[in-house]
Amino acid sequence: MTRKVALMIMALMLPMLASAQKQFTLEDLNFGGTNYRNMIPQYRTIAWWGDTPVRLSADTVWTINPKTGAEKFLFTRAALPTDGNLSALSWAEFPYAGKPIVKLSDGDYLVLIDFKARKTLFKMKNDAAVSEWHPVSRNLAYIEGDNLWVARAEVNMAPPSSVTTPAQRQEFDDHMRVQRLTTDGSRDIVYGQAVHRNEFGIEGGLFWNPQGTRLAFYRMDQSMVADYPLVNVPELDDTTRVEATPAPEKYPMAGRTSHLVTVGVYDFATDRTMYLDAGDPTDRYFTNIAWSPDGNTIYMQELNRDQNDCRLVSYDAVTGKRLKELYRETHPKYVEPQHPIVFLPWDATKFLMYSERDGYNHLYLFDVQGNMLKQVTSGSWVVMDLLGFDAKAHTAIIASNEANPIGRNLYSVNIDTGKRTRVDEGGRGWHDGSLNPSGTMLVDVYQEPDVPRNIAFADTRTGKTTRYFTAPDPWQGYTVPTYECGTLTAADGTTPLYYRMVKPADFDPAKKYPTVVYVYGGPHAHNVDAGWHYRSRSWETYMAQRGYILFILDNRGSENRGRDFEQATFRQLGQVEMADQMQGVKYLQSLPYVDTTRLGVHGWSFGGFMTISLMTNYPDVFKVGVAGGPVIDWKWYEVMYGERYMDTPQTNPEGYELTSLIPKAKDLKGRLQIIIGLNDPTVVPQHAYSFLKACIAAGTQPDFYVYPGQGHNMRGHQSVHLHERITRYFDDYLK
Amino acid sequence: MTRKVALMIMALMLPMLASAQKQFTLEDLNFGGTNYRNMIPQYRTIAWWGDTPVRLSADTVWTINPKTGAEKFLFTRAALPTDGNLSALSWAEFPYAGKPIVKLSDGDYLVLIDFKARKTLFKMKNDAAVSEWHPVSRNLAYIEGDNLWVARAEVNMAPPSSVTTPAQRQEFDDHMRVQRLTTDGSRDIVYGQAVHRNEFGIEGGLFWNPQGTRLAFYRMDQSMVADYPLVNVPELDDTTRVEATPAPEKYPMAGRTSHLVTVGVYDFATDRTMYLDAGDPTDRYFTNIAWSPDGNTIYMQELNRDQNDCRLVSYDAVTGKRLKELYRETHPKYVEPQHPIVFLPWDATKFLMYSERDGYNHLYLFDVQGNMLKQVTSGSWVVMDLLGFDAKAHTAIIASNEANPIGRNLYSVNIDTGKRTRVDEGGRGWHDGSLNPSGTMLVDVYQEPDVPRNIAFADTRTGKTTRYFTAPDPWQGYTVPTYECGTLTAADGTTPLYYRMVKPADFDPAKKYPTVVYVYGGPHAHNVDAGWHYRSRSWETYMAQRGYILFILDNRGSENRGRDFEQATFRQLGQVEMADQMQGVKYLQSLPYVDTTRLGVHGWSFGGFMTISLMTNYPDVFKVGVAGGPVIDWKWYEVMYGERYMDTPQTNPEGYELTSLIPKAKDLKGRLQIIIGLNDPTVVPQHAYSFLKACIAAGTQPDFYVYPGQGHNMRGHQSVHLHERITRYFDDYLK
C-alpha cells in the first residue's frame, strides 16, 4: 500500500472516529487519576449558618433560599482580614446562629471573623495535629509532644501579688492561657486520641461537655502491647535520609495482651484533672462517651473483652464516681455498641439509644434512671443514622432502609407517637442528609441508579422538597456499560441477597465473556446499593469496557440487613460468606454468556481474604484472582475487630483453624496475585508473608506485589498504577 | 476409539517409552531438589593423616595407598569410645602426624581419640557457635554471650593457700581453665568475628600463633553504624511466637559512617590482653593477619578507606608496638589485599606475598626486613591459590590458569629457580587440590568439560599421577543438552571474552529458539570455566530441555583475567559489563537459530543489577527478565565492596548517577520480575523497594516476589520453588 492510499483511508476514517463514543482510561475512572475529578458527579458544598443554608466555594459564600434554591452573594475570601494564610472558604464554619461570624483558620491560628464588619474577633493558636475547639467557651484542647494541653479563651484569674509589671502579667496570662495537663505522654501512653483501634464507633479522644467547660479525654497505656515492625523506605527525593528506618506499630493481635484505657476529665473551673472510677480497665472497652446536657454527668458504654456483655454506665463528672448502670445488653455472639446516647433537646431527662436487641438496629427511648420508656422504631429494617431533632415538633430525623433494603431514605419520627414520615425527595435511591439546627430543614443529597447526584431542600414537617442542584451526567459522550441489579437466595435457602452485574456496552448474549467476581464480604460494609449505577466501583466500568462481565454480591455478614444476617459468620469468618458467593457463582454458571472456564475473583482487605479463600476452597472454579491486603489468619489480626467475630485463638481454635488460609496454601491451582502496602498497619504484612511461606513450602506459586510506603490502601496516583496492575493480571491470564 | 484399541496402542508404546531417554525435573537438577544428590558427580572425602591420605565415610576410615589407589580399612565409628553423640567420621581430623589420634566432636565436646587403643585422650567443652582450637597447645578460643573466652588445655597454676579441699581445688582449676577475656561484647562491640563484612579475604576473627600460646583477635565497634531494619516473620510451625519481630542488621552504606576495628592479642603465658598500636582505626581496614613462625610477631595489611593505599606492617606481639612498614602498594583505582603473607617453612626470615602490582596476581618473595627479593611467578595469567610447600625441594605448590584462561591447573614452583612444573593429571580442566603436610603428594580433584569428576594422587616432585576415583556420569540415561564454549571480542575491540552456549538436545538449526542470557558480571566471580559442561548451572540444562537456548558470557570485571580486565569497571559498575554483554547479544543476533524477538535475561545479585540494567538500557532488545536480589543504586550497598569499585556518593556522584537504576525505572518496557529474600542482609530490601517506588511513580510495571525468612540466596528446597518460579516467568512471557 502506498503512502498516498494510506492517507486517503485515514481521511475516510477520521470523521467516524470523531463521532464515536469516547473510551474510558484509568486516569478518568480511578480516584487517583488525573481526570477523575471531571468524571464524578458534581457536588455543592453546603453548610448551615443557623437555619440558613450557605453554599461554600473556595473564595465565595452565598446564602441559599431553601424554598426556591436561589443563591445570594454573602462574602468573598478576599474581603476578609488575614495574616496571609486564610483557609479556603470551603472549610468555613458558622458556629453562631444569627451572628455574622465565620470560623476559619489563618495559618497556625483559628480565627473568628465578623464577615460583615470584616474584622477579626478572636484568634487562637491551633497548630496541633489533634485538637478540639469548643465554640461556646472557645477553649481549645490539643495534643502536643504526646501530651494533652488546653488553651483557655479567656483568663480572668487574679495574679499573685508578686506579679506587678506588665511583662510579669503577660507571662502569668500566657501561663494560665496554655496549660499542660499531662506529663507522661509518649508512644506508650497515648492521650486524647481514638482508642481501641477506632472500633466501636470511636473516632477521637477529646470530648467537650456542651458548655465547653469540662473536657473528657481518653488515656491509653499500650506499653504492654507488642510492636509490629513496619519499615519506612525513604522517599526517592529525600536528600536527608539514606537508610530505611524502623516504624514500629503497636498492634495487639487476637488473644494477646491488649492496652489499658481510662477516661480522664479536666475541669476548667477548678483546674483539676481526675479519672472516672470505672474499675480495672484490663480487657475492657470504654466506648461512646456522652455528656448530659448540663455537662455534669458522663455516660459511657462498657464492654467486656469477649464483647458479649455491654453496659451503659453514668459517672459524676465532678468526682469521677460511678453513679449507675442504666442498661445492660448481652448476646451469645456479640453486642456491638457503635453510637453514644443522644439526649432529647426538649427533655434533658431522656435520651435515645441504638440497639440491635430485637434483631435490627433501632432507637429506644430511656430516662436517666435507666428505664426503657419505649422502642421508638421497629421493623425488619435498620436505622442507619440519627441526623438530629426538630425540638418543637418532638421529632427525630433519621436515615433508614425501611423502604428498600439497599436504599437509604430520610424520615422524621415523632418520638411521642412513633409516627414516621418520609421527608426526602423522590423516595428512591440513597439519601445523605444534613439537618439545620432547629431540625426543620434538610439538605437532601442523593443518588439513584440512573441519577448521578441531585441536591434538594426538604421541609421536615411538610416533606415538601425543592430541587437545588442537578448534577449533569459526567459520562456524557462515553461508551458506558450496563449496570443491573437483582436478588439471589443465600446458601441458607431463604435469605435474599443483592447482586450487581456490569456488562460490556456492546454485550452480545450469544458470546461468552470472561467474568470477574468482585468481593468484599466483611461486616460493616456493602457493595450493592441504590446509588448511581447501583454503586458500581469505577474499575468495574473499566473492566467491562475491556470485555469482562463483573459480578458483585453482598453476602451474609455484610451491613444493613440486621443482626442475624450479620452474625451468621460468627466464629468462622469467610465460611458462610463463601457459601453465599458460590450461590452467585451458581447463578453465573446458569448464564449462557458467562464463560465459566474463565472466572476470576478480586477483592481487598476482607475481600482479599475472601479472594484467597475462594481460590483455594474452589480451585477448579476460579482461574485467576487478585487479593489486596488480605487477612490470611485471624490470629494475626487485631483484638477488637478480630475477637468480636472470631473470639480468641485460645477459645475458638477450631474456628481459627477452619478459616486460616495457611493450610489452604497447598490447594492453590489458579493464578493468584497478592498485593499489599509495605506499611499496612491494618492487615500487617505478616499475613501475606506467612502465606507466601506456606505456598513456598507446599510448592504452590502465587504472585506477589508490594507498594512501599503505602498503607492498607493505595493513595493518590498509586491507585491508578494498582488498577492497571490488577487489570493486566486478568488480561494476562483470564482474557 | 474404544477402550480396547486404546490399550493396545499403549502396549505398543510402552517399550518405546521405556527405552526413551529420561527427562530432568527441578528435583533432579536444583541443588535444593529431592534427587539432586544423585544427579551430581560422586565424590570421595579425603583427609591427610600426616602424609597418609585417608578416605572418610560417615562410619569408616580407610587409608589409601597413593601410588596404587588401594584402600585399607583403618577403623570404624562404632569401635570408638563415645558419650553418645560422636560426630560422623566425615568430619574427622588427624592433627598429629604418625600418631593414631583422630579429632572429632562428641555432643558439646571436642575429643581426641586414640583409634588404635580405642581410648579418649582429651576432652574439652566446645559448644560455642564461633570457636578456634589449636592442636599444638590444645587451647580453645570461643565467643559466648558476645564476649571472648579461652579455655586452657592444661592448668599448672599453684592455687592460693586458702584452697585446701579437693572441691576448692576443682573450683580453682575450673576458674583457671575457662577465662573470660572481654566484658563489653554486645551487638555493638563484636569480638572474634570476621570484620569488614568479610571483604579482603577475611573469614574469621580468631588467630592463633603457630604454637597456640598467643591469640590475636578482632574487636569491632559498630555502635556508630546505622541499622538496616530487617524483619523476622515467625516460622509457621513456631508455637512460641505470634508477632513478627525486628531483626536489625548493622549495615554501613557507601559514604556513611563505618565501624572501627582493632586487633587484640591475648598471651596465655602472662594472662594479659593488649591491642596492637595501629593508630586511629577510623576509615581503615585491618586485614590478613599473619603470625611469624616463632609466634612473636604479627603481620597485617592496612588499607585506607579509599582502598588505594595498602601497607604491610609488622607488630610486636608482646608489646603491641608497631615495628615496621614492610611494603606499600598504591594504585589510582584500588589495591585489594586478599591473602595473608606466608612464611617459607625452610626459612623463617622470608615470606611469600600475593600482589597484582604487575597487572596479574602473582607471588613475590620478601624478607622480614621488607626487601622484595624476587618476583616468584609472572606472566599474563594469575596465581589462584598457594596450596603449600615441599620444604625439602624448596617448592611451592600453586594453582593457576597459566595453561588456559578458563582452566585451573596445579604446579610446583621452585622458589630458588622460579621453575614451574605442572603436577596435575591430564593438564586440562579445573583442578582443586589438597597437599600433604610435607608437600610431596597432592590429591587432585578435577573436572573437564566432558569429565564429571576424577580424583588422582599426584607426586609433586615427579608429576606422576595415579587415578584413584572416576565418577560415573550421573546423567546417564537422560536426554542431555549440548554445551559449547567459545570466545568473542569485548567492546574494547581487543579483549577475548569466554562464553558458554547450551542448546536443546534436539536442536535444529533451521528452527528459531527463544534465548535467555544468564548473567552475573561482577568481580570475584566467573561463570564459564573448563569444569564439567563448562560449569553450566543446572537450571540451564532444565531450560534447554524446555526448548530454550542459554547464553552465558564472562564480561570484563570478572575474575581470573588480571587487574586491568577487572578494573575496567571502576567508578561505573555495570557500564563496561553491559557493553560486553551486548557483544554477546550481537553474536546471538548473528545466529539464524536465535529468535532475537524472544531474548530474555536472568541474573542474581550483581547479576540482578545487570539484568535490570540491560532491561532498561536496552528495552527493545530484552523482552523478559528475572532479577534476583538486585543492587539498584550502589549508595545502598555496603562500604567495603561498594566503595572499592565506586568510591563514595560524595566523591563520585556522576558514577552513582550513571549506574543507578532509579532513573531507569521509567524506561522499563518488557516483563521484569524482581525476586528478593525478605531477610537479605547483603543487598538489603531497600534496593528493590526503592525501584518499585520509582516504577510506580513512573507508571511502569515490574513484577515482584519475596521469599520471607530467606537471605541473599534461597536455601534448601526453596531454591526449587524459586527456579520453578523463574522458569514459569519465561514460559509465560518469552516462550
Description:
The structure is a homodimer of 735-residue chains. Chain A is an alpha+beta fold and 735 residues long. Chain A has twelve helices and 42 strands. In chain A, strands 35-36-38-37-39-40-41-42 form an eight-stranded mixed β-sheet, sandwiched between helices. Residues 1-19 of chain A have low confidence and may be disordered. The longest helix of chain A has 17 residues, at 3-19. Chains A and B meet through strand 15, strand 16, helix 11, strand 42 and helix 12 of A and strand 15, strand 16, helix 11, strand 42 and helix 12 of B.
Topology:
Two copies of one chain form a homodimer.
Chain A: H1 3-19, H2 26-29, H3 36-39, E1 45-49, E2 52-56, E3 60-64, E4 71-76, E5 101-106, E6 109-114, E7 119-125, E8 130-133, E9 140-144, E10 147-151, H4 166-177, E11 178-180, E12 189-191, E13 206-208, E14 214-221, E15 227-232, E16 245-250, E17 260-267, E18 272-275, E19 284-291, E20 297-304, E21 309-316, E22 322-330, E23 342-344, E24 347-355, E25 362-367, E26 372-375, E27 383-390, E28 395-400, E29 409-414, E30 420-422, E31 430-435, E32 441-448, E33 451-459, E34 465-470, E35 482-489, E36 496-503, E37 513-518, H5 538-545, E38 549-553, H6 563-567, H7 575-589, E39 594-604, H8 606-617, E40 624-628, H9 639-646, H10 653-659, E41 671-677, H11 686-698, E42 703-707, H12 718-733
Parallel strand pairs in A: 37-38, 37-39, 39-40, 40-41, 41-42
Antiparallel strand pairs in A: 1-2, 2-3, 3-4, 5-6, 6-7, 8-9, 9-10, 10-11, 12-14, 13-14, 14-17, 15-16, 17-18, 19-20, 20-21, 21-22, 23-24, 24-25, 25-26, 27-28, 28-29, 29-30, 31-32, 32-33, 33-34, 35-36, 36-38
